[in-house]
């Protein structure tokens, strides 16, 4: 069994002072949402063994806040910054996942961007909880987390429609669930 977690970066400023998209930083809501998702993840094991983080500033900031929210509750996963995650399409992301076979984590977390993460999550899930699949069908919003399980022993075997969507969570869904 392998678990893939796909986390989209949190909400960002519209433009970076440098003018480069990769330099956009989290805004106030993004920082709050990242902390909320990190807290949720800390309360809902199992936790990732390996985290691959886009080198875009917003993704690195998202992971830093999520990681801080999980500090003390879990052993620290191995974290690798990956420039290839920025702008990656689903086929690029699938290659990155397959390459994780060399380290063989049981649980892999990618922190990156849409549209690639959303398209990949939707393509990989052939089954799963109907409510989660319906919520994910429209979008993987900022700070959205999709958790997909695969009945496999090797990351090389991850393929389209082979995953089971275990859950889909976002700050908006958490707020709705708490009646807020």
Question: Would you write up a description of this structure?
Answer:
The chain has 180 residues and is α/β, with parallel strands linked by helices. The chain has a single domain, classed as Phosphoglycerate mutase-like (Rossmann fold), CATH 3.40.50.1240. It is 36% helix and 22% strand. It has a seven-stranded mixed beta sheet. Helix 2 links the parallel strand 2 and strand 3.
CATH superfamily: Phosphoglycerate mutase-like
Radius of gyration from CA coordinates: 15 Å
User: Could you tell me the strand content as a percent range?
Assistant: 15-25%
The helix/strand order is EHEHEHEHEHEEH
Percent range of helical residues: 25-40%
- Count the DSSP helices: 6
Q: Could you give the distance between the termini? A: 35 Å
- Tell me which CATH architecture applies here: 3-Layer(aba) Sandwich
Q: How many structural domains are formed by the residues? A: 1
If you average the pLDDT, what whole number results? Answer: 93
Number of DSSP E strands: 7
Low-confidence regions: none
CATH topology: Rossmann fold
Shape: globular
Task: Kindly name the structural category.
Answer: alpha/beta
Give the class-level CATH name: Alpha Beta
Please state how the strands of the largest beta sheet are arranged side by side.
3-2-4-1-6-7-5
Main beta sheet strand tally, sense and closure: 7 strands, mixed
């Amino acid at each position: 069994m392998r678990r893939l977690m796909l986390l989209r970066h949190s909400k960002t400023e519209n433009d970076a002072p440098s003018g480069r998209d990769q330099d956009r930083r989290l805004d106030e809501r993004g920082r709050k949402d990242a902390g909320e998702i990190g807290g949720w993840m800390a309360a809902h094991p199992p936790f990732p063994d390996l985290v691959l983080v886009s080198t875009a500033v917003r993704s690195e900031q998202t992971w830093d806040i999520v990681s801080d929210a999980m500090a003390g509750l879990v052993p620290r996963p191995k974290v690798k910054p990956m420039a290839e995650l920025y702008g990656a399409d689903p086929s690029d992301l699938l290659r990155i996942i397959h390459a994780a076979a060399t380290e063989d984590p049981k649980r892999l977390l990618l922190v990156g961007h849409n549209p690639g993460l959303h398209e990949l999550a939707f393509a990989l899930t052939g089954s799963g909880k109907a409510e989660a699949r319906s919520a994910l069908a429209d979008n993987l919003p900022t700070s959205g987390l999709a958790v997909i399980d695969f009945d496999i022993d090797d990351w090389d075997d991850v393929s389209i429609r082979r995953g089971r969507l275990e859950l889909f969570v976002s700050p908006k869904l958490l707020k709705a669930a708490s009646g807020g």
